[in-house]
Amino acid sequence: MQKNILIIGAGIAGCSLAHFLANTGWAVTLLEGQDNIAQGGSGNPVAAIYPKFMLNDQAYNDFMLKSFIFTTGWIKELKLDKNDYKFNGAIEILDQEYAHKLDINLSKKILDKKTFLSVMNPSILKKYNIDKNASGLLFHQGGWINPIALCRHLVNHSNIKTVTNQKVKSIEKLNLEWTLETDMKKKFMAHQVAICNAEYIHKFELTQHLHTDAFRGQINWVNQTSLEVPSIVSCDEGYLAPPIQKKHIFGATYAMNDFEEDIRLSDTRKNIASIKEIHQEFYKYCLKQESIDGRVSWRASTKDRKPYVGRVFNNDLFKKLRVRELAHADNLPWLEHLYVSSGFGSRGFTFAPYCSFVLANLINENLSREDKETLNYTNPERYRLKKMSLKKVASQIFQV
Ligand SMILES: Cc1cc2nc3c(=O)[nH]c(=O)nc-3n(C[C@H](O)[C@H](O)[C@H](O)COP(=O)(O)OP(=O)(O)OC[C@H]3O[C@@H](n4cnc5c(N)ncnc54)[C@H](O)[C@@H]3O)c2cc1C
User: Which of 281, 301, 321 is the C-terminal boundary of a domain?
Assistant: First the structure.
């Protein structure tokens, strides 16, 4: 029997899931509401890829590390055009004491730490043209990717049919098949469906409880100059990318639940200010420009910074079950053949490819121990279970 699946949303979450499923024999129909793929958060001219660790959240750091190692290794294997990505290092500018503590924490986790990261020192600053007073960490395998080129490459597969201008309005199960209806009343049917539509996930009745905050983000760029700017991605409060597609790209500002689509001068100014510590000369150059281009898009963030990746409950069954019945992971009322992948926050290009790989393994019923751990961590129903004091059950949906 042909395995077919509908995927809603053609950003990095939907495109990478389509890719992994197509490679394992699925016929994928990828439905995108806009007139092209990678038009939302995944449509910026550059995405920085580096592991952003927390000082006191070991589980998050484990997830970050797994995602980063998977995604950078996988991208290198994809045979993308060499102008569309580079993993020659990424710098995270941090307070000196914070960087020092993080370095000590990571020593316990990362076996070959020397090849993974270095604490910033004068020779690193000089080598990469960063201003002299910065402190922080250099991640040797970090870098950047052209998001649109990546998404295009992923869906260029004979098993993937991409259909644009299809804004899905409803999802219903009719005669054992999922039936999706668009705002133009067009219908699509398949046995399985995956919802990868970022901050719009709550718009569907089945997933309306999955709360995300939409953060408006603005990036800016100027045409390439002869200035010797940092030669690798450098992240402070904002980031400055090395020259890509003859542009110096920098940003981003973030504002929660702000839906202004136009470029805002005040945000451009904030983006310029955020590169001051990275490169004074470039900062001064940007200040002098009369007009500066940019792009606005949104990212979906969850309250606990963990994405929603996995299955959701059948709401009717869930309402009927008592707390003590839900206390056993085996009794949880999962909705069959419906999957979600959303809430990747500011690290979508590190997290989403890895999560899509794991989700494809779930759909293929081929989970490793590590996949199960990841799905326990990203369980989309964690908030509903937590509310019923079943936080432990939420992280034990798969036995490991
Ligand atoms: C300004 C900015 C800068 C960023 N910089 C970085 C960075 O440097 N590095 C990094 O890793 N991450 C970065 N991020 C975050 C990253 O862009 C996101 O995490 C990532 O793009 C999320 O991918 P996604 O596929 O979940 O969502 P999206 O890329 O937003 O894709 C969702 C898609 O679903 C479609 N859709 C929505 N509803 C429907 C519907 N009903 N029917 C059909 N289609 C629908 C949308 O049109 C959209 O194309 C940045 C985000 C912003 C906003």
Answer: 301
Q: How far is the centre of ligand 1, averaged over its atoms, from the C-alpha of 203 (Å)?
A: 16
**In angstroms, what is the span from residue 101 Cα to ligand 1's centroid?**
32
Which residue's C-alpha comes closest to atom 18 of ligand 1?
348
DSSP annotation of 244 reads B
CA of 400 to the centre of ligand 1 (A): 31
Phi-psi bin for 108: left (phi > 0), alpha (psi -120 to 50), beta?
Answer: alpha
Q: What is the pLDDT of residues 292-305, one digit of tens each?
A: 999 999 999 999 99
**Cα dihedral: 70, 372, 374, 113 (round 10):** -50
The pLDDT score that the predictor gives to residue 199 is: 97
Domain end: 251, 279, 301, which one?
301
In testing the pocket of ligand 1, which one of 17, 19, 31, 42 has its CB within 8 Å of the most ligand atoms?
42
Q: How confident is the model at residue 240 (pLDDT cuts 50, 70, 90)?
A: very high
Residue 300: predicted pLDDT: 98
What pLDDT is attached to residue 1? 60
What's the total number of domains in the chain? 2
User: Can you list the alpha helix ranges (DSSP code H) found in the chain?
Assistant: 12-23, 58-77, 96-109, 113-116, 122-127, 147-155, 265-274, 280-288, 315-320, 323-326, 348-363, 369-377, 382-387, 391-394
Per-residue pLDDT, averaged over 371-377, amounts to 98
pTM over 0.90: yes
Ligand 1 touching residue 136 (CB < 6 A): no
